[in-house]
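Thread: CRAL-TRIO domain-containing protein, structure

OP (GT): Posting the sequence first so everyone is looking at the same thing. Length is 260 residues per the record. Can we get the structure tokens written out before standup tomorrow? I want them in the notebook alongside the other entries.
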Amino acid sequence: MGKIMTEKTKVESVLHILRKQSPLSLKQEKFCNTACVERFLKVKGENVKKAAKLLRACLTWRDTIGTVDEFSGELAEGIAYVAGHDEEARPVMVFRIKQDYQKFHSQKLFTRLMVFTLEAAVQTMQRNTEQFVILFDASFFRSASAFMNIVLPTLKIVAEYYPARLHKAFVIDPPPLFQYLWKGVRPFVELSNLTTIVSSTDFEDSITLDYNDFSMYPRAASLRFDSSSIPVHSSAAKIGACASSRFSFTVSHSFDSLKP
């Protein structure tokens, strides 16, 4: 009995290892709350040393990312934003990036945009909510490989630095060859079991579905962004309602800015 570590003891052990390696800053101490450490333990099979190693890597990464920029332009265009919340109060993020985005923006800037959106989603979570949903809308892409370069880095960052946060991810209307590429890389993608490819071609426009319907149908409806849903202000972008002719989400107005 004495050798069995309780959840509280495991959390304290992880924090002890981190503090022994190097003192935690006030910002890091705040980040490493009990719920956070428990998520890292969960993805590492309750192994204290492995959880501490992953959490240390996450803290280092967050320090490297630094202060995240505001992306009011991207929000106005509907490139990446928090659309609202599902019936379980999980924030729903939409990545609707154009194919030429990475031609004119560096990978680092794309990563910062991604982190900005992820952090915004986390900030909108209610007290008992720990997971989010991601929708990858591929309607602007013709190249399967180019779109893969959007999906894979996002899933990798979520797996490594937001462990146990992803409820489900949906790839909507990808280019025809995407499914073949995905079949090849899927065994090597940690969150592949939570990622589903869906298409709108088998449904009529009049059909309305929410994302839970995706588990019941092999193909599902695609998202259409309404630019009027996100009014942009000079200093920060605020979230409004997200309208779609095919599905919609309940949007929370309990927060003022996407800036974490």
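GT: Both are above now. Quick notes for whoever picks this up: The mean pLDDT is 77. The radius of gyration is 19 Å.
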